[in-house]
Amino acid sequence: MKKKRNLLSWIIEFAGRKRRYFSESVVLAVFGVAASFIPYLIMADIVEKLLDGNREWDYYLKQTLLMGVCWLIRITLHSFSTSLSHMATFNVLGSIRIQLCEKLSRIPLGSVLNDNSGSYKNIIVDRVDSMETTLAHIVPEFTANILLPVIMFIYLILLDWRLGMANLLAASIGLICAVIMFARSKGGYELSVEKTKKLNDTAA
User: Fold this and answer.
1) 14 vs 10, 25, 89, CA distance in Å?
2) Whole-prediction pTM value?
3) Which fold has domain 7-159?
């Protein structure tokens, strides 16, 4: 019996068709997130200088400008990363829709007539379109936003293990709150999807 594939395996297969674009998108996203970390390090240095009584205003001006440059780099890299991931995603989604239409043309006419047009529209348009967020945003942004915090956590552990544990505690509390939020929203989300599907079928 043919083994049923899960959603993740399909996403990896589809994303692999534009592997170069997605890889470049992830790399740019990682550097963009890294650039967004630098202003915090600069601010820490500024606070240290203030506590030491440093009155050199030129130093503070240069550091502030440097923080602004870092954020401009962050925005620029994020824009290029998002553009690449969207270019790849739209190509992938287009290929998927073409394959679905080719598959539809091979289905016996009797089977096609048994279902309403809205169900086919839901599969070819809506379900395929729902993959856009995963491929265009989660692939580059989630990867980058997970990788850098892990590196920073390792850095904090090397500095002082107590700093690392305190950071881990805060992350754990945030994760628990997120789990509770998603658990409560599951019913509402399913109801929203069901109503949207009925609305789309009716419109088609």
Assistant:
1) 6, 16, 9
2) 0.65
3) ABC transporter transmembrane region fold (1.20.1560)
